[in-house]
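Supplementary Methods, section 5.1.

A reviewer requested that the exact input to the structure prediction be made available. We therefore reproduce it here, unchanged from the version used in the analyses.
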Amino acid sequence: MNIERLKEIREDRDLLQKDVASFLKIKQQQYSEYEIGKRLIPINYLSKLADFYDTSIDYLIGRTNERKPYPYSKMK
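The structure derived from this sequence is encoded cell-by-cell as follows.
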C-alpha cells in the first residue's frame, strides 16, 4: 500500500505526527509506524483520517489523485 500521502497531507496542513496521533487517540510512535509503512493502518483509522483531511481513503492510499472526497450516498 502506498502511504506516502499520509505524510504529505499532514505536512500540507502544518501538523506534527503527535497532532494526528492525538486526534486518533494513539501514541505518536504508532502513528509514525503507519506513515513509514512499518505497520498496517486499521480501516477505522483510515476512515477517520479521510474525514479529518476532507478527502477519501482512496486518495490517502494512492488509488486516486482526486483529493475531493466522494459524495455521501443515502442508503434506502
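The helical segments are 4-12, 17-24, 28-35, 43-52, 57-60. These observations are discussed further in the main text.
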